[in-house]
Amino acid sequence: MKKKSKKKFRITIYLVLRLLVIICMIGQIIRGNLYNVLLCFITLLLFTIPTFLDKALKIKLPSTLEVITYLFIFAAEILGEIQNFYGIFAHWDTILHTLNGFIMGAIGFSLIDILNRRKVFDMNLSPFFVSLFALCFSMTIGVLWEFGEFFLDTHLGTDCQKDRIVYNVISEKLGKNGEKERLNNITTIKIYSDKNQVTIINGYLDIGLIDTIKDLFVNFIGALVFSTLGYFYVKNREGYKFLEIFFPKLRDN
Hints:
This protein has eight helices and eight strands; from the N terminus they run αααβααααββββββαβ. The protein has 253 residues and is mainly alpha-helical. The model has no long low-confidence stretch (mean pLDDT 86).
């Protein structure tokens, strides 16, 4: 795809997604759902990330990576949260966290690679350490994402950290004198509140721990994939020139 065609495609994707978010926001305003209106507003702000990187930090995202970023933001906030794709599609959350690891790895990689190559900084990091930084940067963003989900669930009553039914539990809280108690093949659990009672057949309710660990694990996989690609790209930029579609660059002017 030629450079001009890539730019046209990127702009088209951006405008279409932005229009869809605005339409969604209007619909949520009519319904009076202020939380979803806020999500739409945040989505529109997140769409400005590539522009911010370009204007403020002089970092230019390749068209391919920029389109992936727009689609990721739209899939996470509008489709995932507002349209409940997280609940409708079993692996929607897993796919997005894996993609998040990949995208954040790209951003982290570009930051350290640009600094490493500029003469104003006295740095000469090996390809391994450049890739390691990208991996650590991506995982840090992944952890901050989980912190954000925990904060929203705790203080705003959301359910970002999805609950899960498990069938075996090991816990000191269930044992006597601090000893661990193991429950296997759990058949029924009853949960009482001041308003009602909920009965769960065949399983025990895990309140987000498994979801959090799974999210961090797949984030690691996405980050590791990009860091590995970055390692080979830095070692031989000409030989792996086809990977340039994923690597942000420092703008010349």
